[in-house]
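USER:
Before I trust my own judgement here, I would like a peer's view. Write it directly below this note and I will take it from there.

ASSISTANT:
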Amino acid sequence: MEYTRLGGRGLEVSRLCLGCMNFGTGQPWMVHDREQSREVIDRALDLGINFFDTANVYSRGESEEILGDALADADRDRSELVVATKVFGPMHEGPNGGGLSRKHVLDQAEASLDRLGTDYIDLYQIHRWDDDTPIEETLSALDALVDAGKVRYVGASTMPAWKFMKALSKADVDNYERFVSMQCEYNLVDRHEEANVLPLCADQEIGVIPWSPLAGGFLTGKYERDGDRDSGRAATDEFMEKRFTEENWTVLERVREIADAHDATPTQVALAWLLHKETVDAPIVGPRTIEHLEDHVGALEVDLSDGELERLEEPITPVWNPDIGDV
């Protein structure tokens, strides 16, 4: 495994982050078997992955519980692990059930700590921007968590660049804890963030942790132009259906050709493309099986030439979609 510093800070993270959204019973396509989830987490640790990402809203806390139990039983040095979770989504009906108010952030941090079975969260991230809460209220709550030793770093996810810069500026002016990372959707066919937050992250030395690096499975090559899409995420995810465009099929064809040339899989080429990006620290992979996980880790061995990188990127011109934050 290779390691890097998150956003130029001192925190060392593996070049791949194990995403834990798939662990739980929130959706039919998730891993409902807790033992299978734990086996994937154990294998990730064996492969050198030390960076784990979840969220309170994933299966309403199940994902955090599964990750916490697995890490506790793995008997690994906690100081080597980087555990990340997120706050924003609704966790109960009625008032104060979601959002980024001081009350909800502080309450949910305590709940996440309990589910994860840990004394501190390494990276606590706001899952989305909250238009109903002043950003200084959210920053103050996050700052208090850092001061109390319950959070080590704070990060953000999925928002327009101007809003993110507003938060960074407010933190600088009022001396609040500054965001060190940005989770954003980024892969070979979803490149809108190149026209939004990625240039800002490069300028402000913010770590980039791409989610959906395989475009919901599209870049693994499991779908065909005229194939059956009545099962898996494509059958239930309207956004997934929007990926089936001519430009994207062209990208996938090139991914397959380059994979054949490298004796690699399409998954490995798609991840290798991200790992070649200077702005990217650790793509979040979401394997449901050990076989998938080992395939993902193999991407670290794929070295793409400048010509291959250009060929993969040529079919798409990145354009920022302001509605992407609602996905």
Summary: The chain has a mean pLDDT of 94. Residues 246-261 form the longest helix (16 residues). The chain has twelve helices and ten strands.
